[in-house]
Amino acid sequence: MGTYIVKRLAQALLVVIIVTAILFLAMRLLPGDPIRIYIQEQDYLSLTPEREAALRAEFGLDKPLPLQYIEWMSNLFRGDFGISIHYRESVATLFADRIPVTLHLGTLAFIIGNILGVLFGLIAALRRGTWIDTTVTSLANIGIAAPNFWLSVLAIYLFGLKLGWLPIFGYTSPLEDLWLSTSQLVMPVAVLASFTVAFIARQTRSSILEVSRQDYVRTAWSKGLQERVIVLRHMLKNGIIPIVTVMGVGLANLVGGSMIIENVFAIPGMGRLLVFSVFGQDYQVVQGAVLIVSVLVVMVNLCVDILYGWLDPRIRYD
Predict the structure, then answer these.
(1) Rounded Cα gap, residues 49 and 158, in angstroms
(2) Which residues pair with residue 90 across a beta bridge?
(3) What kind and span of H or E run contains 46?
(4) Spatial distance between the Cα atoms of 268 and 42, rounded to a whole number of angstroms
């Protein structure tokens, strides 16, 4: 196991380095100039060749691309993400303010989505062919096909504008006002978790139906064991591995979905910051944000692989 983890960590490091190199080049191939974008937002009339040169030197854009990349990577090992061109402050400070918001939103959506997805999928599989199965399967298909931005707009119109039940934008820390924070997160979390619920429900249903045909499940039924024992100890435990894989992939989808949700509901998280920085060509912010997301996805995949061995002792890491 130890050797396997070391190998996977080495592979993960290589993947992250490749991602950073591709991102570094892609950002600089985009049309436009971040310095001129920044100047236009401030005072374009005050732009002089001397000031432009000073700004390029301040943000390290006056150096050759290979040297910029090496300098950025060396700073990362010291925990320095650089200085934002737009905000004129440390990128690490910007992330420290926004990462907790995104983690709050994403963690709630991840937990709720997976719990409800497994529950609905399990019920649909156990009641196969009934109206419950038909309803869950139909809603799951709709949940997978419906885009997040459309669901967000629909939720805002119905529950925010028409019924007036929930606030339509903003974020408040639960430490400041728990009730307001909860009411503001109901719609974003529900929309963000909708795809996870639908995807996990379909995967759970398929996995449980496959396991239910195995000989050991039929033997458990013939012994007269309670349905709860058969479902939890024999069916769910042995059918959970494909579901865990989907959960790991779903976490990456939550990261991408949070960008849409945070922009629609005006939530000041990492997704909103990343979208704004891409349009403003704020190199340091985009590079740092994508690096964090890449590391998160890679580590989640590693954790999923390790969980396989715990869930199924037959799996060996040679």
Answers:
(1) 53
(2) 83
(3) none
(4) 22
Q: Residue 295 and residue 65: Cα distance in Å, rounded?
A: 23
CB 262 within 8 A of CB 192: no
Full DSSP string of 232-275: IIIIIHHHHHHHHHHHHHHHHHHHHHHHHHHHHTT--SHHHHHH
H or E element at residue 174:
none
Average pLDDT value for residue range 1-8: 71
Residue in the structure block whose two tokens are 């989907």: 246
**Model pLDDT for residues 41-50, shown as the tens digit of each residue:** 556 556 667 7
- Nearest to 204, CA basis, from 232, 249, 240: 240
* Helix spans in the chain (H): 2-29, 34-42, 49-58, 65-77, 91-126, 131-145, 148-155, 178-212, 215-222, 227-229, 237-264, 270-279, 283-311
3-state secondary structure at position 90: strand
**Rounded CA Rg of the chain:** 24
> Residues 32, 281: contact at Cβ < 8 Å?
yes
Which two three-digit tokens encode residue 191? 């929309």
d(CA 48, CA 57): 14
Q: How confident is the model at residue 318 (pLDDT cuts 50, 70, 90)?
A: low
What is the residue whose two structure tokens read 């190998």?
7
The pTM for the full model equals 0.79
